[in-house]
Amino acid sequence: MSKKYVYLFQEGDASQRQLLGGKGANLAEMTRIGLPVPPGFTITTEACNEYLASGKQFPAGLWEQVEEKLAELERQVGKRFGGRPPLLVSVRSGAPVSMPGMMDTILNLGLNDTTVEYHAEATGDPRFAWDCYRRFIQMFGNVVLGIAHHRFEEIFFEHKRRAGVEADYQVPAEALRRVVEDYKALVRQEAGREFPQEPREQLRLAIQAVFESWNNPRAIVYRQVNKIPDDLGTAVNVQSMVFGNMGMDSGTGVVFTRNPSTGAKEFYGEYLLNAQGEDVVAGIRTPQPVAVLERELPAAYDQLYRVCHLLEQHFKEMQDIEFTIERGKLYMLQCRTGKRTAQAAIKIAVDMVHEGLITREEALLRVEPAQVEKILYRSVDPNAQLDVLATGLPASPGAAVGEAVFDPDRAEQLAREGRRVILVRPETTPDDIHGIVAAQGVLTSRGGMTSHAAIVARGMGKPAVVGCEAIRIDLAGRSFSVNGRTVREGDVISLDGGTGNVMWGAVPLVDPELSPEFRELLAWADEVRTLGVRANADTPVDAQKAREFGAEGIGLCRTEHMFGQGGYHPERMPVVQEMVLAETAEERRAALDKLLPMQREDFYGIFKAMEGLPVTIRLLDPPLHEFLPHQEQLAVEVAVLRATGGDPAQLEQKERLLRKVRALAEMNPMLGFRGCRLGMIFPEIYEMQARAIFEAAVQLVREGLRVEPEVMIPLVSHVEELRRMRQLVEKTAEAVFAETGVRVRYTVGTMIEVPRACVTADEIAAEAEFFSFGTNDLTQTAFGFSRDDAEGKFLAAYLQQKVLRENPFVALDQPGVGRLMEIAVELGRKTRPDIKLGICGEHGGEPSSVDFCHRAGLTYVSASPLRVPIARLAAAQAAIRHGRR
Amino acid sequence: MSKKYVYLFQEGDASQRQLLGGKGANLAEMTRIGLPVPPGFTITTEACNEYLASGKQFPAGLWEQVEEKLAELERQVGKRFGGRPPLLVSVRSGAPVSMPGMMDTILNLGLNDTTVEYHAEATGDPRFAWDCYRRFIQMFGNVVLGIAHHRFEEIFFEHKRRAGVEADYQVPAEALRRVVEDYKALVRQEAGREFPQEPREQLRLAIQAVFESWNNPRAIVYRQVNKIPDDLGTAVNVQSMVFGNMGMDSGTGVVFTRNPSTGAKEFYGEYLLNAQGEDVVAGIRTPQPVAVLERELPAAYDQLYRVCHLLEQHFKEMQDIEFTIERGKLYMLQCRTGKRTAQAAIKIAVDMVHEGLITREEALLRVEPAQVEKILYRSVDPNAQLDVLATGLPASPGAAVGEAVFDPDRAEQLAREGRRVILVRPETTPDDIHGIVAAQGVLTSRGGMTSHAAIVARGMGKPAVVGCEAIRIDLAGRSFSVNGRTVREGDVISLDGGTGNVMWGAVPLVDPELSPEFRELLAWADEVRTLGVRANADTPVDAQKAREFGAEGIGLCRTEHMFGQGGYHPERMPVVQEMVLAETAEERRAALDKLLPMQREDFYGIFKAMEGLPVTIRLLDPPLHEFLPHQEQLAVEVAVLRATGGDPAQLEQKERLLRKVRALAEMNPMLGFRGCRLGMIFPEIYEMQARAIFEAAVQLVREGLRVEPEVMIPLVSHVEELRRMRQLVEKTAEAVFAETGVRVRYTVGTMIEVPRACVTADEIAAEAEFFSFGTNDLTQTAFGFSRDDAEGKFLAAYLQQKVLRENPFVALDQPGVGRLMEIAVELGRKTRPDIKLGICGEHGGEPSSVDFCHRAGLTYVSASPLRVPIARLAAAQAAIRHGRR
């Protein structure tokens, strides 16, 4: 006996989504609870997968089961497939995961030259019957036989012209007969075969076409972008037709049980009388808001309203419902969980808790953290007047403002001068990567959501608009034109990577705000989650923002910005360079003495902003040459001065600087003289930083405030490094406490960011009161990927070719990097059961990584301030899914 | 009751080396087996450690035990300490590990103004007695009271001048009395106290001085260089004095039971009549070969010969023996395992097996693999006439020839032009590192065995002579002078890092040869070891050498040299650059088509040299920009051409090249676009290489030869990379087999050289028939150390400060990198129990790392050809120590 491949709607239920697809399972569920669903059956995803795997052969027994269910259908509706009155069916795809508009649909199947007459007879409307036949041939011709839509449209248009009518529904029956003849001729000519007259052959071919649509290019790309596995397959729904276009007592529409944009609890949707679904899509007639239906067809409206309410109560979810009214009678064609904006998702979830429909935990699971991200970017001020030049694909969210630049070298150069630029290119290649790095955002005129520019920008978290085909770029002329206007290099433009808008000038940006519902949801998240959430913040302003967003401390306060990196504190740069260029420890100490009060002030501000919460401060990490001028540029200047006989004093000074820059230069700075290695060789630097920390802490304690400094030693690969740096910090702390007579409680710990630290975490834990996983560097060292190089040079290709499913710098690589973390957690706890374990790489704000951190037993995650709400939500979901820890 | 801190010689034996020190344990053993040893006792290393740990307090009970043993000594020799006749003792240090000359000795202790008269009376020789007293004050004054030797020597010299004599033994008794008075006055003046007259106080102070000598700077440095733990402590041997300077029937000497230089079985050594040990050292009289003693004192000679033979038979080891003859009677003062050259060690071990003295396994354990290294370097031709300019410290073995260069930048520049240079600097700092990298060898005029230059050169395996104080370097003048001769920049010099010699001109170098004994020993090693030994070889010549040295295959054949890297095949460079600069796959393929026959020829030669043995070929690994000109230099050329209005055509060409070089440039090339990432993005490169491999293999099979290619994919971090590259190789192999009609057996495997590969080795093993651990890169990624940067910038300091005990690029870091390997071995075997596991990093030829590989269950190690014998020996030792696997 063969497997069961075909289910009547009354045989299934909502739980069988995997087997019957989303649409099929819900049709079954609606049938089961007694709603008016036109009868039909579903062919399983298993059948589809077996068909595709076997080289396009129907699995044994499938067709027999289809025949059997078809016979059942005939009994239920009292019509005959290919007979009199004719049973007509729709054939629709329905995957386990919603892929809207990606798959194909055929309506009115079962019509042929004979049954069209029976259909006319049964409906008493020959015009209607012939229009059904016309539509069927057109859809079948397109979907099954691969004939372009516009070929049919041209024929139809010509007949309308001849008939002297404008609207489709005005075309008389006789004209439609001729259209059908011409359509069949087109099929003969293009497909090299007659249009199949046998309904069973039609059905068979349609089922095959739906199966095969699983692998059409649109569907493949959609799955790629939305990370849907390729092996789910699609189910096929065969359903008896009902008609919304049988007069003004008929109609069709789509409704949502709540407003999908705002989440407001209101009956929301549109309908058209005397129309089929495709007429709505065609956009010739304007649909009416569903409220109008109450006046036009009050009985149907009442029934619809009741059914919708019942469905929401039944599924305990906002529903997106397709319905048809055939001669006053309501039919449900589809219901599914409604798509919604992030704002709506949050409001609906919270409201439903208040309505007693779902629990808080369910509400927390209803909101997708990744979606929430979109409302947490700095975004274009909604009250701003925008001068939109063009709209492209929204490839990477966020908003960016800068001067248009058309060349990556130029972008890099201007950025080095501290200017903000937007890189504009027809498309990007690995050769442009330094320009992308330097830019605030990227705009391309070609390429889709998986183009190089899109992937690289998303990886770097930079806003990008791609495939903006309206703009014409003149690289040689360093400009682009759009609608008669020209943007030249240096003109300021703005991008909105969330909408795809490209705007003239600098648009005002606003910080995100949390709605009251979101605050409420996050408060529930805080009750549920066991994973702490901190923020990565380097300034008092960031710390304040983080606290506002619910951060329970700072997990990573980098000190390099305080040293002037990245254009912060330009006034400090000369002192920092003095320190870097020092030839002796005394010279270095003299420069450090000048830096001490500045650092102390930095820490004072941050401690104050985070009063009462822990603050993890990482001592200086980047290689010192990052604070010096660029070597190649300097070498060029020296050579040119020499060649042109320039000022000897200037030459000598530059030569001296170049020598030092050369001496500090490194082949692989990422793996070079940085992190605690700086502190080991120049202990005076870390000593100054420790002193600044403790002096600031003492000052606050004297002011009656509570501080909780956690001093973090970066890039430890061997316990001995930590042991010595810890001693240095402790000695300095004791000195400050002795000088001031005030003691401050503090801890010393380390970043775990190289694999050796993971596998020797038992030794390291003996010296560390806390570990903080630096997963950016750990990902670089575990893979042997330099992020600077990989993302542009080969990682984009790896993602395009699915060598890797995810960018490991965005979502934590759990089997590799995660495994190393698990080893470290286990070894660390073995030595020090109460060790505090955190993560401060960018992964700390990415939902799947947060889930991993919960499972791995970490104490907290630390994310950038704007991602703190995401982390709170993701941590709560992890606790619900995997249990509290 | 207190611990036993003091052992009479008759209470101990040779097994108590740890407690009694090497000297004490052997004195006990000789006493135990009835040899004529002057009675004495040993204070344990425990007593020393407790003394040092307690802040220089004698442990409770120690002194009482010394008193007790002293009384026993008085009974044994019939003399009294501080009495009549006076018991005189020597006080000598003796650590568990031999530290020759590093510790202090005091003779004739027990003499004072009174006992010197008793001593004169007992010996009947006042001159002798006063000379003993003089020597004692001098040694005691130096060792215990810290008065410089030369201060005593000046006094003694003045008295000799006044007495009108030259040799010490000619000074009359009366003059010696006055010397003693002046010595005592010197002590009073310098030490601020009287010379202690009380023998017990002398003894107590002497014991303390020996204890404390454990931490004198010489001893600390010696332990550091020789990797001896700091916590062993030293024992103190107190022994009744015998005198070799009591006339022409007395004497003293040192003999070896075999020739320590050649290993020949002959009685070898020197002696002096009427002398004490220190007279031999002073070098005023020339010692006689021990054979002469047979004529001068035949009875003593006979006895000595018999005792020495007995000791060798007893210890089953070549002995280094100190003896004294007092008035015709032989006394044994010390015996220990004799130091020997590598050649001698091998010959002695093999001879002793043939003599039935030891087993083959014992012989294998007798030869230190690290020592053998010295005879496996290319070395100075022993038959060459050498013009030695000066001799410094032999800091890093091997010989080097090159032009003297005095500036690291210049060294780098000349090396880039393909010239061989020797970097000459007063000393080196991290700023010189690029010069050391570029040089064949390093010569410094300052610094010791642990100076920056010494550590860095050893780490890089480059010959170095340091602290060569005879040369005077004029950096500004780019020259050095020595003994009136001047070496200028560009003059060729040679270094011998094994002897410390610096030679004028290019000395001829010779390849090492294996002696018959060494071949025999290695044959035994091959019987015992279970770990395979292969070689890393890139050319047929290297492969031939490796085979000659016993390699059982090639574990790593790098293909980058075949692409012209490192100055090999300069004629290929233009073709390789054409390939690198290609803008399209077609252009790239065209260049690859030209490279194919060259690669095929390379592989043909290597397969032929290794006929019948496996050859692992690694597909192209380095980043492509390594094949292009240097970016900064190019940028400078372009800028200068622009500034000076140079040839526009040349400018344009260079600008184009610069653009490409820039596009390929990387922040961290070590972690960049290299390894299999090249093959993933440009599959045509790996395809060409695979084709060359299989075409060469087919050609050899047609010639009737056996080939065993193993195709190795480098830098795999994710199984998907290996899966795809493996498919590419297999597809190419099938194509070649189909074209030629010949099939060749081959395997495909991967390097394991990034931590992610280790922790996902179970997945990777599904696609790999073998793993080869690339421990150079694995060390870089596990630690986060870029070798290029670390060794110069901070690793030397880490080693000097003992943050790390060993350079992890020399000896495998077992707790970290080794742990990652163990994880990979376990996971790999879980998926594929018969997976072949090798190592091809430089560690494959380092003994402690080979030992680890044996324990970790690897199949083979692969080492550079010259290190193959070391690996064979080390592998045998590992099998003996840890059991065969």
Automatic annotation (TrEMBL), chains A, B:
> Which residues are in the Pyruvate phosphate dikinase AMP/ATP-binding domain?
18-55, 57-296, 302-354
The cofactors it requires, by name, are:
Mg(2+)
Residues covered by the PEP-utilising enzyme mobile domain: 420-500
Which GO MF terms are attached to this record? ATP binding; kinase activity; metal ion binding; pyruvate, phosphate dikinase activity
Any Pfam family:
PEP-utilizers
The UniProt catalytic activity note for this protein reads: pyruvate + phosphate + ATP = phosphoenolpyruvate + AMP + diphosphate + H(+)
Q: What is this protein called?
A: Pyruvate, phosphate dikinase
